[in-house]
Amino acid sequence: MTTVVSLLGQEFIVILTRLAAAVLIGAVIGFERSFHGRPAGFRTHALVCIASAMLMLVTVYQVEWMKGVPLEAIRSDPTRMAQGIMTGIGFLGAGVIFKEGLTVRGLTTAASIWTTAAIGILVGIGLYLAATVSAIATILILSGFRYVEMRLPSEFYAHHTLKFDRETVMPEDELRALVGRHGFSVANLSYRLTETGRIFEYKMVIKTRDRRNAERLAHHLRGLPAVLEFRIAPTGD
Known about the structure:
α2 packs antiparallel against α4 (about 80-95). A four-stranded antiparallel beta sheet has the order 4-5-3-6, with helices on one face. The chain is built from eight helices and six strands, in the order ααααββααβαββαβ. It has two domains: about 1-150, no CATH class; about 155-235, 2-Layer Sandwich (Alpha-Beta Plaits), CATH 3.30.70. By secondary structure, the protein is α+β, with helices and mostly antiparallel strands.
């Protein structure tokens, strides 16, 4: 009897440790997302990680909830549970991805949710070393790689809108020259009259190799009396 109680106590400690580790790891990853204002953050990642761990515990301790069934009749395949978890997480990840014009946001958060689920699976089956290394790598990728990415040579794209009074519209060639002087090239230029024909609007996608050009362009546009309104909205996550 004492041996049985001891074994039950050990199992309880193992389960408690794995679930606590899952909450901690998920919360740490989620904090990074919350800190940067993403919709799926602290609580979401903690829940995803502990849910994955719980479902894997169901498989690990399958014998416990199938008492009375002969051991030879139990066909356990933990990988099937893992596959089911990752498939289900796909729907949750899709919920944080949204499109605004040509901009797609939320891809990194969706990937972090998917990764957190995988880490939860590792914790659930007791692979603490792999889970710890994966958690550290995930945090480094989400936080540290952000600064690396900002410094990598790449093209910076933005949606650019300019509004003028109908009587004082800047000619297109002058507009292209202005944008070009600030290091941008123009693509997909369109025109529109709004507010019952009183406002003329240019809408375009601009690109440059130096994202600081956006600030310089905005500063210049603020000083032009003819510009009623402008918008420079970076694309990306």
